[in-house]
Structure formats: structure tokens, C-alpha cells
Design goal:
253 residues; seven-stranded mixed sheet; alpha/beta; 13% strand
């Protein structure tokens, strides 16, 4: 029967599409990378999505985040993302967590219930906690490395963490994984040298913060990265592609 996923089924076949429909994927971080991953997963027929992010849409998100529009400024990102998911596929089940994932919030999640985990958060502590939790549960995970301060969307690569180079975040995660005895980890990283963002007080979040009241402000960072519409989005789409590829491959076994 003709349906909204018919064109995808022409490539993967009915058994794979049923596998996607029955799959549950958790996306940690619904920003520039995670938002596009959610979009592609939804349009690919994933049946259940867990969206985890405590942040609200900010004016400065409009340049790169899929669910960020003038109408969604001030709304929780998971709420805006859920609405978009259901506009595309009303049958997709969505679980939302307005939570910033860190070691002290990990007990809210049972990683054994997920078929795949996407790490699209930007703190080292949170990433490492996610990686350890997924590995302990035996759940596949793919991690986004640094997408900020980059302008070349063609420089992304999919690799094991121990095969990465150039990316400063990957270097830190690689070292920490080695200390923790984590032998392999699929990541998406860029071989582009990061650009040092300009210091411009006229448009600085430190001087002109527009974060909605009560939110975790980006100014807590040492550096506020520059970003574009076409770099984080590509990372998110690559990540979603890897998830779909792995899940459909699993259905063929």
C-alpha cells in the first residue's frame, strides 16, 4: 500500500521498514546537530523517539536549528521538535525529557530500552556519561564531535574515535575513552581546523544575552562558538544516516 515511506521502502524493502517502525532511538541534545538527526529519523520511519534537552529556543538558534523559528522562540526545544515530528508522522511515539544529561541525571534513563543512542550534546562530562551508559547496556551509540567554528560541510568523516584527527573535542574524548577502557566508539567528526571566532562586543552574548528567563545560558562556556546553517545540519544528517543504515542492516541478519 502506498504510504509516506514508500520511496524509502523502494531502497530498503518492507522488512527493513518494519524494523525502523519498531525501533526506538534516543537523541540527546536537540540543537543544530540533534535537530536535523531527529528530522531525518522521523522522515525515515523510526517509530519511537526519545528527545532529551533542557534548553529553550533562543534568537541565536535561528541560524542553524531546524525547529527554531520566530514562533518557537522561548519554547522548550523538545516541545518544538515533538510538534514538528508529529506534523511529519503523527504515528511516531515521542517521549520528552527536559533534562540536561549529566552523571547525576543518568538514572532517569534505561538505556536497555533503546535500539540506538545519538549523542549530540556539547559537554565532555555529559558525553562520557552517555557513552559509558550506552556501552554498559550494550546499546549502539554514535557521537557527534565538534561542529562549531567550522565552515566546510564536506570535511565530516565517520570513524572510530581512535581513528580521528584534527578535532580538539575528539582528541579529549579519545583520551578519556582510553582511560575508561572503551575499545571502540563510532563518531562523526570534522577534519577541518576550527576557526577562531571573532570577538565582537556588539553581537556578543556576554554583553547582550537574549536567553529566555530561567534557562541554562550559553555564557557559562569559556568560548561561545560561531556556527552556520550548513555545517551542524550535515553532521546531524550523517548521524541519522548511520543509525538508519545500522538498524536496517540489523533487520537483514
Amino acid at each position: 500500500m502506498l504510504n509516506q515511506f514508500a520511496r524509502t521502502q523502494l531502497l530498503f524493502g518492507p522488512e527493513a521498514m518494519e524494523r525502523l517502525r519498531k525501533s526506538r532511538v534516543a537523541v540527546f541534545g536537540i540543537g543544530g546537530v540533534g535537530g536535523y538527526a531527529v528530522e531525518a529519523l522521523t522522515r525515515s520511519g523510526i517509530g519511537t523517539l526519545d528527545l532529551i534537552d533542557d534548553d529553550r529556543v533562543c534568537l541565536t538558534n535561528l541560524n542553524r536549528q531546524l525547529h527554531a523559528t520566530r514562533k518557537t522562540i522561548g519554547r522548550y526545544k523538545v516541545d518544538a521538535a515533538e510538534e514538528r515530528v508529529h506534523e511529519i508522522n503523527p504515528e511516531c511515539i515521542v517521549y520528552k525529557y527536559k533534562t540536561f544529561y549529566l552523571p547525576d541525571t543518568r538514572d532517569q534513563f534505561d538505556f536497555t530500552q533503546y535500539d540506538y543512542v545519538i549523542d549530540a550534546i556539547d559537554t565532555v562530562t555529559g558525553k562520557l556519561a552517555l557513552i559509558e551508559a550506552a556501552k554498559a547496556a550494550g546499546t549502539p551509540i554514535i557521537c557527534s564531535m565538534g561542529a562549531g567554528n567550522k565552515t566546510d560541510p564536506t570535511a565530516f568523516r565517520v570513524a572510530d574515535i581512535y581513528q580521528t584527527s584534527v578535532c580538539p573535542l575528539a582528541r579529549v574524548i579519545r583520551s578519556e575513552c582510553r582511560k575508561r577502557g572503551i575499545k571502540k566508539l563510532k563518531v562523526v567528526y570534522s577534519t577541518e581546523q576550527p576557526i577562531r571566532p571573532l570577538e565582537d562586543p556588539a553581537i556578543s552574548c556576554r554583553s547582550h544575552c537574549v536567553c529566555p528567563p530561567g534557562t541554562r545560558k550559553c555564557t557559562v562556556r569559556r568560548d561561545i562558538p560561531g556556527s552556520t546553517s550548513f555545517v551542524p545540519s550535515v553532521a546531524g544528517l550523517i548521524i541519522a544516516g548511520e543509525v538508519i543504515k545500522d538498524l536496517t542492516a540489523a533487520s537483514a541478519r
